[in-house]
Amino acid sequence: MYHATPAMFNRVLNWLFPDRCAGCRQLTGDLFCAACRKRLRPFPPFPPPAGLDRAWVAFRYEGALVSAIHQLKYGRRRRVAHALGDLLAAAAGPLVADALIAVPLHRDRLRERGFNQAAELAGRLRQAGGPPLIEGLVRIRSTQRQARLAANARAANVAGAFAWNRPTPPPPHLILVDDVFTTGATLAACAAALRAAGAQSVGAIALARSLIDDSVVQ
Ligand SMILES: [Zn+2]
After folding, report:
1. What is the Å distance from ligand 1's center to 65 Cα?
2. Dist. CA 71 → ligand 1 center (Å)
3. Overall number of domains in the chain
4. Is residue 2 part of a domain?
5. pLDDT (tens digit, 9 = 90+) per residue, 171-212?
6. Distance, CA 49 to ligand 1 centroid (Å)?
7. Which residues contact residue 110 at a Cβ distance below 8 angstroms, ignoring those fewer than 6 apart?
């Protein structure tokens, strides 16, 4: 009996559709060619926004990373998620917390997209030796896409949108994982729900953030 494994399936896919660099479209067999990978710039340290104990972002949202994140959300999904998750893990180094929690999608959006990109990134952080990835944080209310709102409307849009849905409290020290950090309003709303359920500290880690104008980021 012959069973195709996901790895074999990926090899076939790669042969049919060889990976082009998300930056310069060169055939590389990888998400980025060496030159575009080198051009990804780290995001400078910044003070955590209200509601988060710590916040850290790996890269500036620009150039090749913008098209890679676009592919992550709307394109070939898991393979891109793995490559980006591994980049994030390498940039972040060891993460100290009891658990990782991915920013949840509302179930309607999850159904429409088929997967949660934040959970895919968090899964790679775990694989790279990070804290365990746990479930239990849920989006209880569908919210408007944050990118369409002014900064001051974003906090109101997501306030109360999340809840902890397990009978036991979450572990005390947590790190939230998301793909793109905008104003931090979504992450702060997640943190508030986790604190209400008993968490003591909640930090956040994200792959990318815009330096200039948050409104262009989604
Ligand atoms: Zn390139």
Report:
1. 11
2. 15
3. 1
4. no
5. 999 999 999 998 899 999 999 999 999 999 999 999 999 876
6. 34
7. 116
